[in-house]
Amino acid sequence: MPELPEVESLAHDLGRRLDGRAIVKVHVPQFSALKTFDPPVTALEGTLVDGVGRHGKFLDIEASGVHLVLHLARAGWIRWRDEVPALPPKPSTKSTLAVRLVLDDGSGLDVTEAGTRKSLALYVVRDAQEVPGVASLGPDPLTDDFTREKLGEILAAEGRKQLKGVLRHQGTIAGIGNAYSDEILHAARMSPFKPADSLTDDELTTLHDALRGTLGDAVARSAGTAASELKSEKKTNMAVHGRTGQACPVCGDTVREVSFADSSLQYCATCQTGGKPLADRRMSRLLK
């Protein structure tokens, strides 16, 4: 799933490509992706792109006062096309194409979603805050006002909830998902199951530095990277996420995994849990 650094880079890349261009046509072959009806998708046709921004993991293309807001979900992505096919795409349950924007110079972009679990979302609104997911976002962790004290207030309010869940909950902190929450906690040398309100002053400073540093470094690495290269850039720079069974780059211990119903987390026991493996309930059931 694209998270804050990738969506930030997509916004910059698309902003450069779309600046001053007119949107000629919007095709939505996967109609289930469209979550709004007023204004209609056709309201975007004939508009000029004013800018591309980000709200957490949401991408916001603003054109003549109308906003096309995209949430790429788990399997969505954006592919730039220097030349869009002349024939409009046909609705198809077998195609990965969800949305296509056609621009005035014949170029455009395809929004695709792999797999059968269709959760990509497209909103056409007059104000991005009309999108429920945007309106309910927590603070952006890379803004200047996301201070150590602000993080402390958030963690105190979350009580005994586990750090992993707090970091990736979009209504608490915007933009962090499964991958970067793993990376932040590894950088901070903290267990993903550590209670949010149990941090000492020094640990709070460490977590804040790890959070800002991990996300900031990822954004800096991705700057200027084309959309087609962002996924591989993200994957190659992960320390623990997606690296189960491989060596931790810090201590050399084996990266371990805890599995859930539809996701998993990765961590290093030596770096984060005092050498003690975390209980993997799914594996425990299999071994009974």
From TrEMBL:
Keyword Zinc annotated: yes
Matching entries from Pfam families are given as:
Fapy_DNA_glyco, H2TH, zf-FPG_IleRS
GO aspect biological process, one term: base-excision repair
Superkingdom classification of source: Bacteria
CDD domains in alphabetical order: BaFpgNei_N_1 (cd08973)
State the needed cofactors, names only.
Zn(2+)
Location of the FPG-type domain: 239-273
Q: Which GO terms describe its molecular function?
A: 8-oxo-7,8-dihydroguanine DNA N-glycosylase activity; damaged DNA binding; DNA-(apurinic or apyrimidinic site) endonuclease activity; lyase activity; zinc ion binding
UniProt keyword annotations, A-Z: DNA damage, DNA repair, DNA-binding, Glycosidase, Hydrolase, Lyase, Metal-binding, Multifunctional enzyme, Zinc, Zinc-finger
Coiled-coil residues: none
The record's annotation in Gene3D superfamilies points to: 1.10.8.50, MutM-like, N-terminal (3.20.190.10)
**Domain Formamidopyrimidine-DNA glycosylase catalytic stretches:** 2-120
Reaction(s) this enzyme catalyzes, per UniProt: Hydrolysis of DNA containing ring-opened 7-methylguanine residues, releasing 2,6-diamino-4-hydroxy-5-(N-methyl)formamidopyrimidine
Which SUPFAM superfamilies does this UniProt record tie to the protein? Glucocorticoid receptor-like (DNA-binding domain), N-terminal domain of MutM-like DNA repair proteins, S13-like H2TH domain
Key word DNA damage present in the record? yes
Question: What's this protein's family per the entry?
Answer: Belongs to the FPG family.
Q: What name appears for this protein in its UniProt entry?
A: Fpg/Nei family DNA glycosylase
Q: Which species does this protein come from?
A: Nocardioides bruguierae
Q: What is the lineage of its organism?
A: Bacteria, Bacillati, Actinomycetota, Actinomycetes, Propionibacteriales
